[in-house]
Automatic annotation (TrEMBL):
<keyword id="KW-0408">Iron</keyword>
<keyword id="KW-0678">Repressor</keyword>
<dbReference type="InterPro" id="IPR002481">
    <property type="entry name" value="FUR"/>
</dbReference>
<feature type="binding site">
    <location>
        <position position="140"/>
    </location>
    <ligand>
        <name>Zn(2+)</name>
    </ligand>
</feature>
<keyword id="KW-0805">Transcription regulation</keyword>
<keyword id="KW-0804">Transcription</keyword>
<dbReference type="GO" id="GO:0003700">
    <property type="term" value="F:DNA-binding transcription factor activity"/>
</dbReference>
<dbReference type="GO" id="GO:0005737">
    <property type="term" value="C:cytoplasm"/>
</dbReference>
<feature type="binding site">
    <location>
        <position position="100"/>
    </location>
    <ligand>
        <name>Zn(2+)</name>
    </ligand>
</feature>
<dbReference type="GO" id="GO:0000976">
    <property type="term" value="F:transcription cis-regulatory region binding"/>
</dbReference>
<feature type="binding site">
    <location>
        <position position="143"/>
    </location>
    <ligand>
        <name>Zn(2+)</name>
    </ligand>
</feature>
<feature type="binding site">
    <location>
        <position position="103"/>
    </location>
    <ligand>
        <name>Zn(2+)</name>
    </ligand>
</feature>
<dbReference type="InterPro" id="IPR036388">
    <property type="entry name" value="WH-like_DNA-bd_sf"/>
</dbReference>
<dbReference type="Pfam" id="PF01475">
    <property type="entry name" value="FUR"/>
</dbReference>
<keyword id="KW-0862">Zinc</keyword>
<keyword id="KW-0238">DNA-binding</keyword>
<dbReference type="GO" id="GO:0045892">
    <property type="term" value="P:negative regulation of DNA-templated transcription"/>
</dbReference>
Amino acid sequence: MTTTEASEREQDAAQSLRDAGLRVTAPRLAAIAALGEHSHATADEVFERVVRALPGTSLQATYVVLAALTGAGIVRRIEPAGSSARYELRIGDNHHHVVCTLCGAVDDVDCVVGEAPCLTPSDAAGFLVQTAEVTFWGLCPACRALEAATQ
């Protein structure tokens, strides 16, 4: 990434924070940058990247920043079963996820069928369904290749 691209990304992140009514702070900008480099990151993974840019940052501060970004709708938090919560910048659509059962890799899957919420329950029990979250489980290409090589 060029210096100009990095500057533009930081300006976009700062504008997103302002638009959400949040102050623009170095930890928030660093967390957004970390998620731009590594989508579907855990809080620990975000912390590892943030602390490189801001050595005095604590893991607790990273959790506070991620909670604020999630609450403001800048970041989406997903919680695949049996896995730590993960964070991503892709918001505003009703996409789903595919998770590797061996290595835990996560990737996006666009809406399964039709328009959001993609799935219609047979009985919504009076709820107005606004989103549907689906997690597909299987083997990522790297794990499939590894498994095939060992057979």
